[in-house]
Amino acid sequence: MSKQIAIDGPAGAGKSTIAKKLAGDLSFVYVDTGAMYRSIGLYMLKHGIDIYDKAAVEKASQNADVRLKYIDGTQHVILNGADVSKEIREEQVGKAASVVSQYGQVRSNLTALQKKLAEEENVVMDGRDIGTCVLPNATLKIYLTASAEVRGKRRFDELKAKGENPDLDTIIEDIKKRDKADMTREISPLKQADDAVLVDSSDMTIDEVVDKIKSLYA
């Protein structure tokens, strides 16, 4: 039977970075579910679909073939045959993903794929509803968080490093809005599973968080 580590938490908490390193250390497969939702968001943007039109998004999502491919241990997101791993990291794509992820048909399609991956491999999977919905019987569940200010500063630094000129206050405000949307959506809202361990990374390094989770898994 496969081993499963579920990591949930709000945007910018470092889930992907932590999950990726943890999976590498444990020789597990890393599954970034947020990347899947981002690919659906990207599909809608590319095809001019109104992301706030639930019926239109659910219908169009049936034509979006999302797959995960692992090359030298690195996850690549394939959308209708094209590698979109870099494109999906754009700010507008992340915002679109937060909207389309609220729709039932989109979630059910991707949840089925995520469950299948977890049945076939030992996985570290991160997202918003992994411990509560996708892998309710996971070997270990983590709820990874950090203050909105810390998460905003991390994003600010990332964008500055890319040569962009972001506004920190705007980023923090966007994060708070996204938190509210994720936590109050009707389907699979973001919340800490009853049996998940809370880890606040506000004052922790990446290695400290990974070591903490590894000690919990041991």
From TrEMBL:
Instruction: Write out the annotated subcellular location.
Output: Cytoplasm
Q: Which InterPro entries match?
A: Cytidylate_kin, Cytidylate_kinase_dom, P-loop_NTPase
GO cellular component, alphabetical, reads:
cytosol
MF GO annotations: ATP binding; dCMP kinase activity
Keywords assigned by UniProt, alphabetized: ATP-binding, Cytoplasm, Kinase, Nucleotide-binding, Transferase
Return the broad EC class. transferase
Domain Cytidylate kinase, by residue range, is: 5-215
One matching Pfam family is: Cytidylate_kin
Q: Which reaction does it catalyse?
A: CMP + ATP = CDP + ADP; dCMP + ATP = dCDP + ADP
Q: What is its EC number?
A: 2.7.4.25
Q: Which domain of life is it from?
A: Bacteria
Family annotation (Gene3D superfamilies) = P-loop containing nucleotide triphosphate hydrolases
A GO BP term here is: nucleobase-containing small molecule interconversion
The entry marks the following residues as binding ATP, namely G9, P10, A11, G12, A13, G14, K15, S16, T17
HAMAP family xref list: Cytidyl_kinase_type1
Q: Which family does it belong to?
A: Belongs to the cytidylate kinase family. Type 1 subfamily.
Q: What is this protein called?
A: Cytidylate kinase
**Species this protein is from:** Candidatus Weimeria bifida
Q: What is the lineage of its organism?
A: Bacteria, Bacillati, Bacillota, Clostridia, Lachnospirales
